[in-house]
């Protein structure tokens, strides 16, 4: 009989802990769930649970992220949808996951009802979650912009996306707090109407006085393999374009790279954090919930060109010349013909690298 390697045993135990925690949270709710009970369900020690997850909240985020990422992928919609139709389909996909008024208090459908209260409970999670919502709105807004009819005036639709996400997250909270109050059909109609609103949204580039200059470089670039979690396929990090290394306090800077880069350039946001045990699962959850609905509502031709990559270990950041990362990290490199030709660091780095040359 073959033995597990150390890495395989760690992964096996992690999966057991996640499965046990999912059952515990489902049956008892987040508040009443106990780490000792989770360890008993998993047939592991309390220490084994903590060796995989730093605490109950991190475990809760990981369970929700795992469920969101495992959601079955429906067939992609056909091309030809308008922004209004796509935003309505996005909202329908969202509200379809809300618990019904008839659902029991402790059920899998209500597993995520404590998410926002746990985010609010600690400053360490509030600001990263704010920036994750900013990134979600950027991704949704960019997708909406790609559905403009030919000849339509250009305009930023990220504010429309922010309004839609505010509506949908509010509907989620009301479905948890006041079962039966939310009419999902009205929520869908509201989101459809948002697509037609003129919110006066216009992109303004950062003031040049506050943007660092990109430094010319001539370095080989061989990034480690990574996955673009929006498309679920290998990230195109070696293509001509911009690779931005962003801590979870600086995610909105990804839009600066997208707006400043040439239209044919690839743009990748590589997410890093100083607290991977708790904040990486939160990032995975926020992006996965958006991705599930995005892929149901938008044809692949309308998916945003912004790639999103998780770099939990910092390996990709180190390959890009950023050996130490934190939640405040903002660094970017410009790639051409398989080489790094420019790099920038600090606030404004994404714009600087994207516009270099």
Secondary-structure map:
Layout: H1 6-32, H2 35-42, H3 46-52, H4 56-69, H5 83-95, H6 115-120, H7 123-145, H8 158-177, H9 184-194, E1 215-220, E2 227-228, E3 233-234, E4 241-247, H10 254-260, E5 266-272, H11 276-297, E6 306-310, H12 315-319, E7 330-336, E8 339-345, H13 349-355
Parallel strand pairs: 4-5, 5-6
Antiparallel strand pairs: 1-8, 2-3, 4-7, 7-8
Helix pairs in contact: 1-2, 1-4, 4-11, 5-8, 5-9, 5-11, 7-8, 7-11, 8-9, 10-13
Concise synopsis of the structure shown:
With 357 residues, this protein is α/β, with parallel strands linked by helices. The protein has 13 helices and 8 strands. The longest helix is centred in the N-terminal third of the chain and has 27 residues.
Protein described:
- With 357 residues, the protein is an alpha/beta fold.
- It folds into two domains: 6-52, Homeodomain-like (Arc Repressor Mutant, subunit A, Orthogonal Bundle); 57-357, no CATH class.
- Helix content is 48%, strand content 12%.
- It is built from 13 helices and eight strands.
- It has helices spanning 6-32, 35-42, 46-52, 56-69, 83-95, 115-120, 123-145, 158-177, 184-194, 254-260, 276-297, 315-319, 349-355; strands at residues 215-220, 227-228, 233-234, 241-247, 266-272, 306-310, 330-336, 339-345.
- It has a six-stranded mixed beta sheet, covered by helices on one side. Strands 2-3 form a two-stranded antiparallel ribbon.
- Helix 7 (123-145) crosses helix 8 (158-177) and helix 7 packs parallel to helix 11 (276-297).
- The longest helix has 27 residues, at 6-32.
- The radius of gyration is 21 Å and the shape is globular.
């Amino acid at each position: 009989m073959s033995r597990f390697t150390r890495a395989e045993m760690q992964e096996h135990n992690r999966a057991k802990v996640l499965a046990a925690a999912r059952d515990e949270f489902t049956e008892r709710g987040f508040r009443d769930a106990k780490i000792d009970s989770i360890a008993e369900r998993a047939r592991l020690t309390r220490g084994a649970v903590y060796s995989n997850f730093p605490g109950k909240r991190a475990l809760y985020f990981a369970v929700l992220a795992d469920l969101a990422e495992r959601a079955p992928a429906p067939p992609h919609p056909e091309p030809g949808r308008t922004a209004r139709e796509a935003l309505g389909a996005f909202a329908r996909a969202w509200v379809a996951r809300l618990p019904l008024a008839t659902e029991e208090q402790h059920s899998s459908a209500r597993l995520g009802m404590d998410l926002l209260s746990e985010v609010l409970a600690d400053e360490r999670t509030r600001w990263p979650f704010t920036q994750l919502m900013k990134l979600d709105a950027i991704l949704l807004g960019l997708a909406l912009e790609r559905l403009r009819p030919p000849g339509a005036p250009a305009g930023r639709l990220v504010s429309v996306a922010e309004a839609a996400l505010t509506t949908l997250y509010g509907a989620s909270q009301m479905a948890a707090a006041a079962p039966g109050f939310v009419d999902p059909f009205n929520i869908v109609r509201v989101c459809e109407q948002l697509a037609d609103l003129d919110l006066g949204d216009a992109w303004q580039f950062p003031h040049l006085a506050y943007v660092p200059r990109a430094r010319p470089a001539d370095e080989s670039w061989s990034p480690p393999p990574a996955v673009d979690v929006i498309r679920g396929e290998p990230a195109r990090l070696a293509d001509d374009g911009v690779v931005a290394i962003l801590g979870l306090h600086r995610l909105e800077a990804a839009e600066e790279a997208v707006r400043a880069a040439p239209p044919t350039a690839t743009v990748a946001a590589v997410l890093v954090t100083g607290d991977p045990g708790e904040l990486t699962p939160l990032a995975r959850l926020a992006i996965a919930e958006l991705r599930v609905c995005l892929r149901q509502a938008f044809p692949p031709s309308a998916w945003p060109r912004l790639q999103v990559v998780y770099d939990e270990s910092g390996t990709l950041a180190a390959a890009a010349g950023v050996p130490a990362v934190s939640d405040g990290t903002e660094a970017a490199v410009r790639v051409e013909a398989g080489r790094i030709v420019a790099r920038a660091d600090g606030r404004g780095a994404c714009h600087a690298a994207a516009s270099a040359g």
